[in-house]
Amino acid sequence: MIKLFEHTKQVLVVTLVLITSLLSGCSSLGVEPWERDVLAKKEMALPTSAVDAALDDHIYFSKEASSGGRSFGGGGCGCN
Amino acid sequence: MQLIETTEQKQKQKTKPNLKGLLTTATCALLGTQAHAEVNTSDDKWRFDTAIMHYNEADRVTATEAIIAANKTYGNDEVLSLKLTIDALTGASANGAVAQPDAQTFTRPSGNGQYIVEGGETPLDNTFKDTRVQLTGQWTQPLSDVFTISAGGNFSKEYDYMSISGNTNLTRDFNQKNTTLSAGIAYAYDVIEPEGGIPKPFAEMVIAGFGSDEFDQAFADSRLTGDDSKATVDLLVGLTQVINRNMIVQMNYSYSSVRGYLTDPFKVLSVVDVNGYAQSYLHESRPDTRSKHAFYAQSKYHFGHSMLDTSYRYMTDDWEIDSHTFDVRYRVLFASGHYLEPHLRFYSQSAAEFYQPFLQQDDVLPMYASADYRIGELDTYTLGLQYGMPMDSGNSLSMRLEYYHQAPKSDGSASFGVLNDVELYEELDALIAQVTYSF
Fold this sequence. Notes:
The structure holds two protein chains of two kinds. By secondary structure, chain A is mostly helical. Chain A has a domain of 28 residues. Helix content of chain A is 49%, strand content 0%. Chain A is flat. The mean pLDDT of chain A is 80. By secondary structure, chain B is mostly beta strands. Chain B has two domains: 41 residues, no CATH class; 397 residues, monomeric porin ompg (Porin), CATH 2.40.160. Helices cover 8% and strands 55% of the residues of chain B. Chain B has three helices and 23 strands. In chain B, strands 1-2-3-6-7-8-9-12-13-16-17-18-19-21-22-23 form a 16-stranded antiparallel β-barrel. The longest helix of chain B has 14 residues. The two termini of chain B are 29 Å apart.
């Protein structure tokens, strides 16, 4: 557990540096509040369908060695 | 005329079974609250997503999974999400042993039976049968104009497996909500209690004398305990950025550390002689820790009459598994509200450092070894098509059909003797069919 937190500290520092630079870069991007019509469409949601994403995560978690990334790693099953 | 139509509609509504009303009552009963008139008001009501998915591998596993997800947004933008998942799995799963020219006899992991695999066939244990029930809940609420917090839990139970987890996530909006940063943490505790117990690492599968007292004694000696557990900590940081009116991107970094029993108690490795003939089968052994890093990026672009959704994930872990996942969905939107969405997914992983398809009789036993092809070198792809259509009163129906192909690869181990005449890396095909109804 101690090892985990040592590692986490390094990751947090790198992440904070990245975030700061990204935020300054991101401030020139985006839209005004009244320009969100397209972004508000159902198909632009992240993820498009939570149910599809959950079913896919379950399949690929049990058939491949990777999980997570988009959200917290799959699991909760002794899938074979 | 208008009046007549309205009366007819009312009668129709009366005679139709009110599924939404029933589910709302059931959800409220579970929460210990009252249904009131919430069902009939336009705001502040429950939304349901229901889906049934059937997964079918040729000659192997068949699974059916049903989901009911309920979602409610309250007055101050608080969101409550509840989800019930039930799945049933039956069929055969590769036990890790290599195919042989002659028939092979194996003992089931429970010790209660044996099965014979014909010559030339990849050994599959055909007794997998499980039913899983999973309950998930998540509460999300704004803390201020820019901060939102979310917390949730999950409980999952099957015959020989239990998982319980909790998570919390904080998001902060910047730049008129065009930029959102999020950070979350999750903890999961899983317990496995396989029928027949947890095998000792590299214990030999007991086969001879099945049914005798000697067999029972030898089987009991090959077992360590009745159950074991693992604990997982996940950390996730993410950035969501609106690029312009038609485009949004998301980037995540996640770290996962798991500690405990990570071995598969149902998998074995063949020990072969110099001619490739299997002499015995040893239970696999994996390290008891694993750390994974994943980088994920997704973008969505709306073209007006279509939408392109692409994502990529790179994962690397201390078992030396590296993987790349590409996913592309292109949704063609028709004026009627119907849509058609082709889907392509490519996945490629390298093998865990301790993966080996078999052990050799004269070699020194390694510290860890597994012949599970799912942690070997593996390429897969998915081809899919989804069709969706709007229904009355904002409801929607969609169907999807997908084809999934797995192609395990050689890790470079030279095969010899009779192993040259059998398929060590058998490919696998599966079909996935799903119907989703949202109301």
